[in-house]
TrEMBL record:
GO terms for cellular component: plasma membrane. Coiled coil: none annotated. It is found in: Cell membrane. It is a multi-pass membrane protein. CDD domains: TM_PBP2 (cd06261). Its main location: membrane. This is ABC transporter permease.
Length: 461
């Protein structure tokens, strides 16, 4: 950090604001004890003083604010978030430790095998740097410390199979592709499963309920690779509606003035923008009274998001290339939506059947409220909780859970990368994919817990 402005802000202004706030809010000696510890960790990281940080300065940057807020008598949701963040940091350290020792216990030394590569042996500087980075000649506890230090410094090593690419570069390249694919399919399957599940549960026992349940069970239990082969044969080979595999048509990208990765990132940001617009519409609809006004608000924000996205892609010069990616995306999305919506629908149906037996549903009916109001406002909101948890956590686990889908459709994302790294014994890349998945799952649990507090008025932290 050599910029004088940054030095003033991070070394002076930011800590000073923390001290002033702590003095203003502090009412007990423990407030100042936690303040002193957090400042010591912060300045230890800022000055890179090795005796004041644990694994790396970046780990202190994560730990210092959590310890700082332990000096205040927080309550409710803020206290819960603080405690959960502390648990996440602890679990993250344990998870990374377990992954390290699992690979350490495997027969043979993967670092030695990697260092025998002629491309590395021919470059003495790279060879010595790799030996030092992996701690080849060090005892296990030094290797462990270096592994943790490298992880929190975001230095995950160099891929064996894609040398000299760094692991974090490969993850940054493949992650947008996986998120783009699974975010689109997860949102669509969630909406379909939620809507159909609540409807068939409300009119249980009818023909629609039986047919939908039967179809849901079939898709939920079908052998996934076989089902995807059928889709590929039908839509890609026989009807030729969609490409057979891959995520771009190379012939269309020869003279492209930008990379496919740049288009992928913009598509992912567009997808997130539309998701945010939908969430804003739901929040605004929650403050309205009539069902018609709620639907108008939600659809208004969704259509507005679609219009803005259309104008953006029509004017940025990437629209044709984005359509090529979307064309390749269509078949995997169809496969994932038809498979996942079945599970979402069955979960929503079973939860709704339990909720409609509750006393407050009987009370709402006794008051003479319309069936749609009782179903959508009272029953479905409570029944949504397990489905929301499944959606959030499932979205995080798709980083490694998309192995089958990405392999069948040759979609070069995180799932296919993890499979190829495992089969090629590319240990640094496999460790990087596994650890990154663990981080996302831990954060997803926190998001699910916070959503519970907003969705269910009975829950108070």
């Amino acid at each position: 950090m050599t910029n004088p402005v940054l030095i003033i802000v991070f070394a002076g202004v930011l800590p000073a604001l923390g001290v002033v706030y702590a003095i203003y809010k502090g009412k007990a000696p423990q407030n100042y004890i936690f303040l002193a510890i957090s400042l010591a960790l912060y300045y230890g990281a800022l000055t890179n003083f090795r005796y004041l940080y644990l694994f790396s300065p970046r780990f202190n940057y994560i730990l210092a604010p959590i310890i700082y807020f332990y000096g205040f008598n927080l309550s409710g949701l803020s206290k819960f978030i603080r405690n959960r963040l502390a648990q996440i940091v602890l679990l993250l350290v344990i998870y990374v430790t377990v992954v390290f020792f699992i690979f350490l216990a495997m027969p043979g030394d993967y670092t030695t095998k990697f260092l025998q590569d002629p491309k590395i042996r021919q470059n003495p500087e790279v060879y010595e740097r790799m030996k030092q980075l992996f701690g080849v000649d060090d005892p296990w506890y030094v290797k462990y410390y270096k592994h943790m230090k490298n992880f929190f410094n975001l230095e995950l090593g160099i891929s064996f199979s894609e040398y000299p690419k760094r692991v974090e570069e490969i993850i940054a390249e493949r992650l947008p592709r996986t998120l783009f694919l699974f975010l689109a399919s997860s949102v669509l399957s969630f909406l379909l499963g939620f809507d159909l599940g609540k409807r068939i549960a409300w009119k249980r026992g009818g023909l629609t309920d039986k047919m939908a349940t039967f179809v849901g069970i079939v898709f939920w239990t079908i052998f996934t690779p076989f089902y995807m082969l059928i889709l590929i044969w039908l839509f890609a080979v026989t009807l030729r509606l969609f490409p057979l595999s891959g995520f771009i048509t190379p012939a269309k990208w020869f003279d492209a003035p930008f990379s496919a990765q740049a288009v992928f990132i913009r598509l992912l940001l567009t997808e997130l923008f539309m998701l945010i617009m939908w969430i804003i519409g739901i929040v605004v609809a929650g403050r309205l009274k009539t069902i018609r006004a709620k639907r108008t608000a939600i659809w208004g924000f969704v259509i507005g998001g679609v219009v803005v996205a259309f104008i953006y892609w029509a004017t940025n010069g990437m629209g044709t290339y984005a359509l090529d990616i979307i064309h390749h995306l269509a078949l995997p999305v169809i496969a994932l939506v038809t498979l996942h919506f079945a599970g979402d629908m069955l979960v929503m149906r079973d939860t709704m059947l339990e909720v409609i037996k509750e006393d407050y549903i009987t009370t709402a009916r006794a008051k003479g409220l319309p069936d749609k109001v009782i179903r959508d406002k009272h029953a479905a909101r409570t029944a949504l909780l397990p489905l929301m948890t499944s959606f959030v956590i499932g979205l995080a686990s798709t980083v490694s859970g998309g192995v089958i889908t990405e392999t069948m459709f040759s979609w070069k994302g995180m799932g296919l990368t993890l499979l190829e790294a495992t089969t090629a014994q590319d240990t640094p890349l496999a460790i990087g994919c596994l650890v990154f998945t663990g981080v996302l799952v831990l954060l997803a649990h926190l998001v699910a817990d916070i959503l519970y507090a907003f969705l269910d008025p009975r829950i108070r932290y």
